[in-house]
Specification:
With about 220 residues, this protein is α+β, with helices and mostly antiparallel strands. The chain folds into 2 domains: about 60 residues, no CATH class; about 120 residues, no CATH class. It contains 7 helices and 8 strands; from the N terminus they run αββββββββαααααα. The strands form 3 sheets. It has a 3-stranded antiparallel sheet, with no helix packed on it. It has a 3-stranded mixed sheet with strand order 4-6-5, with no helix packed on it. Helix 2 packs antiparallel against helix 3 and helix 6 packs across helix 7. The N and C termini lie far apart (about 45 Å). The relative contact order is 0.10.
């Protein structure tokens, strides 16, 4: 795998003066850079650790519950020109479906509280259809009985980082502040408005999931 990357002029990403083997980059021109990252389920390893891939001279970063995407994914035919004028390639690309993506992002936000995790999560919930439709996708996956630990941690993280509780209103929580800050809202009224919108979105989603589960139990 490393030989293939080198042959295509990718280089190891250098962070704090140290090259990494799980993230590779290639600068195409002054405006475009291609970054390749290798990720794997953490399993018994601690999350965020680079683990060597046997025989490939690369490593993969461990992500808690990443194996959820092995079962919960969508497929799309994608056609695009390859680098170096090698022609147009049409391939089937697999990507995490809405429940898998939101669950993994919620867990990541719960662990590291990065602005982008909150923004990605809200973006996918907002633009994947009505809340009833998004909740239906969750309910369908939950009903399979698969990945129950991941589902439990993800739903708990959503409630903790976006919901009202005895410690404060949802819009005051870490997830909502991170979402608003990612979009650069500096005006206090705009900041609060963005936080209230996102809080309402996630809280309504959780209520709708519970309602659909109760209706189908």
């Amino acid at each position: 795998m490393a030989k293939q990357l080198n042959a295509r002029r990718f280089e190891r990403w250098v962070q704090n003066g140290q090259p990494t083997s799980w993230r590779w980059r290639r600068k195409v021109d002054e405006h475009v850079e291609v970054v390749v990252e290798f990720l794997r389920d953490a399993g018994d390893e601690p999350p965020g650790k680079a683990v060597s891939v046997s025989g490939e001279s690369v490593s993969a970063l461990t992500i808690k519950h990443a194996k959820i995407v092995h079962d919960w994914y969508q497929e799309k035919h994608v056609g695009a020109p390859l680098l170096d004028g090698a022609g147009v390639s049409v391939d089937v690309v697999r990507f995490a479906d809405v429940p898998a993506f939101v669950i993994l992002k919620a867990i990541a936000l719960d662990q590291r509280q990065e602005n982008k995790d909150a923004a990605d999560l809200i973006h996918v919930v907002r633009y994947s259809g009505s809340l009833q439709h998004v909740a239906k996708l969750f309910v369908e996956r939950i009903r399979t009985g698969q990945h129950q630990e991941a589902v439990k941690e993800g739903m708990t993280a959503l409630a903790r980082r976006f919901g009202d509780d005895e410690f404060g209103e949802g819009f005051e929580k870490v997830g909502l502040v991170a979402y608003a800050r990612f979009h650069g809202n500096e005006d206090e009224d705009e900041l609060i408005g963005a936080q209230r919108y996102a809080a309402g979105l996630i809280q309504k989603l959780l209520v709708e999931i519970d309602a659909q589960l109760a209706a189908t139990s």
